[in-house]
Amino acid sequence: MSEAYILGADMIAFGRYPDKTPGQLAAEAALLALDDCGLSIRDVGVLYCGSSFNAASMLGQQVLKQIGQTGIPCINVSNACASGATAVREAFVAVKSGLYDVALAVGAEKNPRGMLGGPAVDGPSPEGLFGSGSMPAVFAEAGMVHANRYGTTIEQFAQVAVKNHHHATMNPKAAYRKETPLEEVLGSEMIAWPLTKLMCSANVDGAAAAVIVSEKKARELGMSRAVRIRGSALTSDPYEPRNPVMFDANSVTRLAAQQAYEMAGLGPEDLHLVELHDCFATAELLHYETLGLCGEGEAGRLIDSGATALGGRIPVNVSGGLLSKGHPIGATGVANMVEIVMHLRGEAGQRQVEGARIGLSHVLGFGAATGVHILEKA
Amino acid sequence: MAESALMEAKPGHKSIAIGKDGCPYIEAFRCPDCGAVVTEQTMACRACASRNTPEPFRAKETAGLHTWSIVYRSYPGIEVPFVSAIVDLDDGPALKGTVRVEQEKLREGLPLRLVFDDAGGARDKDGAPYIGFHFVEGDAA
Question: What is the rounded distance in angstroms from the CA atom of residue A73 to the CA atom of residue A305?
């Protein structure tokens, strides 16, 4: 089977785009990624377009109507927060299969405003009567399991926000680029204990895209900026006794990480940087463990040690993460890979992880889906 | 008023069932093969994929606190703060619910008891009342 490479990767700046359609945002990202590797939509054999809320509007076809209706197959993917990573995964499968030499994966979203969660139901509104269905409450409850079991403190969760907001000050495409000292994070509005407002991801719009090509095509176009997809895993939530009454962020991620490491023939000790799904500050600490960056119960100590900050042993979310770069749902999974690609190419500017050759990207979709990709400089 | 008072109360949550005696209970389902317990009727077992249909049973109303969050910002019109929790009923199923216990007492494993209520006084479009539930502190087993 052919190897698959990311040859072009880019994103639009994350933020609010009230005057643009999701299709326009996605098309802008698609053109950026194509330009990044010197290809045209005419070179693309298949398009995968990921979006949680906008996929049903034939988003990929809207992209083609903006940049060229070449008649290629177009697959619209909705997989919650893993929609973008799912698009990349399917593009990877398409290239690995040998059917296509060039596949384009786009993730885009215009997020609904306000706090996400709380599905419509028959009967009385469950919110408040039967606990809370809001995303902050769900991830607060998940974090409290860790706090109860291992003594993890609100300060340790808050340090994730301090770190990721700091990282974002070095990322011109991040939605928010402002330092938030610990006192400010702890002192911001309490949303769902132990999560304050600054420990919740930034609800913004955005789009990101990646061009995935076969080894043959990569050799033809030049390997100097190519990034090899060494591991790709996509999982759904395996059975856990409390799931889905209690959302389980952990087992679905452990399963994907294990599969991606196995495909890559690598382990967490081989990674130089990680972009993981910090939808809430609690989630980042949980994923230190589910991705194997530290042992069970050690996540609080890992953030305290500074190992996951830029300059540390294993920098996590140097882009600013979902907390500060922003979390346009369907774009996030592709944007995480764009960030890794920039570092592996040595093109990340002020926030460059020096000498980075291998990186891991992770996203978690509520419901559930996890995508894990391990990328290596070609 | 008189008319709606005579209307039968409806389950306000999918895990609430009404017994032949007219009393509400929590219905859960157990796989006859692997014993996995879930809170909704599924076609096959979610855990072992056995095609022997999970069997309904009347769950106990004694429980223990698994995890929680104190919710300070909810959706418009919802009174805050309240304690949102995942609660393990003593014979298997887990439920999400609101816990009415002083915040200082909250800890993993805290014994709780499920109490049926009037779902905050909610009524359907015909005026029929709903049955809900919440959790209060229970006796240690």
Answer: 48
Residue A164 forms part of a structural domain: no
Could you tell me the strand order of the sheet in which A206-214 lies? Answer: A74-77, A46-50, A102-109, A206-214, A4-11, A227-236, A369-377, A358-365, A273-275
- pTM for this structure? 0.96
**Residue B1 covered by a domain:** no
Which tokens hold the place of A59?
């988003």
Tokens in use for A310? 């830029």
Q: How far is A253 from chain B (nearest CA, A)?
A: 18
Number of domains into which chain B is organized: 1
Question: Is A187 inside a domain boundary?
Answer: no
Q: Assess if residue A148 is contained within a domain.
A: no
List Cβ neighbours of A104 (8 Å cut-off, separation of 6 or more). A30, A33, A34, A41, A44, A46, A47, A48, A91, A209, A210, A211, A212
Cβ distance of B78 and A136 shorter than 8 Å: no
Sign for the CA dihedral angle at A149, A155, A160, A161 comes to positive
Cα B20 to chain centroid, rounded:
19
Interface of A with B in 223-252 (CB under 8 A): 239, 241-242, 245-246
B46 residue type, one letter: R
**Is the distance from CB of A260 to CB of A372 less than 8 angstroms?**
yes
Q: Establish whether A81 is a catalytic residue.
A: yes
Distance between CA B61 and CA A86 in Å, rounded? 41
Structural domains in chain A (count): 1
Does A327 qualify as catalytic in the annotation? yes
Print the domain residue range for B46. Answer: 7-137
Measured CA to CA, the distance from residue A122 to residue B19 in angstroms comes to 21
Domain-embedded: residue B77 = yes
Q: Tell me whether residue A150 is in a domain.
A: no
Q: Is residue B2 part of a domain?
A: no
What tens-digit pLDDT sequence spans chain A (378 residues)? 789 999 999 999 999 999 999 999 999 999 999 999 999 999 999 999 999 999 999 999 999 999 999 999 999 999 999 999 999 999 999 999 999 999 999 999 998 887 777 555 668 889 999 999 999 999 999 999 999 999 999 999 999 999 999 999 999 999 999 999 999 999 999 999 999 999 999 999 999 999 999 999 999 999 999 999 999 999 999 999 999 999 999 999 999 999 999 999 999 999 999 999 999 999 999 999 999 999 999 999 999 999 999 999 999 999 999 999 999 999 999 999 999 999 999 999 999 999 999 999 999 999 999 999 999 999
The chain B residue lying nearest A149, using CA atoms, is B108
The distance from CA A133 to its chain's CA centroid, rounded to whole angstroms, is 22
Is position B57 within any domain? yes
A246, A280, A282: best mutation site toward chain B, by most B Cβ within 10 Å?
A: A246
Element (H, E) at A154: helix A154-168
Of A129, A142, A145, the CB nearest to B98: A129
Say yes or no for a CB contact (<8 Å) between B67 and A193.
no
User: DSSP 3-state assignment of A119?
Assistant: coil
Question: Could you list the residue range(s) of the whole structural domain that residue A107 is in?
Answer: 4-113+202-377
